[in-house]
From TrEMBL:
This is IRS-type PTB domain-containing protein. GO terms for cellular component: cytoplasm. Transmembrane segments: none annotated. It comes from Dreissena polymorpha. One of its GO terms (biological process) is cell surface receptor protein tyrosine kinase signaling pathway.
Length: 180
């Protein structure tokens, strides 16, 4: 079965990831696991740097989002899911994702127009949550407490091991004797 692989390519303006399909040597996931979507990428600085403006085929795997030219079938750019700060759906036809500074071409937001924007959002939510163990405030488990009690704790208490409260001993009394 064929898989995705990547190699950095320098085009003068920065490092681009050239994705290609190779047999059984991939890093990003099997093609059978990739979900293709037809999208139209809106012009923006990041899309221009990545050469993904206009009509593209977007593939979503367990590790990345990649873009392919639908006419030439040439892979244009690959965004690792770990580079993505946030993603969402602006309306029923618009999906966007924001890349952080880990992206070789820098920070920016890529907006895709597609009739399957809701499906793209669901797929990326599923794929990204299966790869990352996220810490959600208010839902941290505390050793020795059941889940309901852990939710009632203050954030500063959640990171500590909670031990039964023991009253502190009374302070020692210091008695001064006069040497008369």
């Amino acid at each position: 079965m064929a898989t995705f692989s990547q190699s950095p390519v320098d085009k003068g303006e920065g490092t681009y990831l050239n994705t290609s399909i190779k047999k059984d040597e991939g890093v990003w996931g099997r093609v059978a696991q990739a979900q293709p979507f037809s999208v139209n990428v809106e012009p923006c600085q990041l899309a221009k740097l990545c050469d993904i403006e206009g009509a593209m085929t977007m593939f979503v795997t367990n590790q990345c989002i990649s873009f392919e030219d639908p006419k030439t079938r040439q892979n244009k750019y690959l965004f690792q899911l770990s580079w993505i700060r946030r993603f969402g759906q602006r309306n029923k036809d618009q999906f966007y994702f924001e890349c952080g500074r880990k992206c070789p071409n820098g920070e920016g937001t890529v907006t895709c127009i597609s009739q399957s924007a809701a499906e793209i959002y669901k797929v990326i939510t599923t794929k990204s949550s299966s790869n990352v163990s996220t810490v959600i405030p208010g839902k941290q488990k505390v050793k020795g407490l059941d889940e309901k009690k852990a939710l009632d704790l203050k954030p500063s208490e959640k990171l500590l091991d909670v031990k039964p409260k023991v009253s502190s001993p009374a302070p020692k009394q210091i008695i001064k004797y006069n040497k008369n």
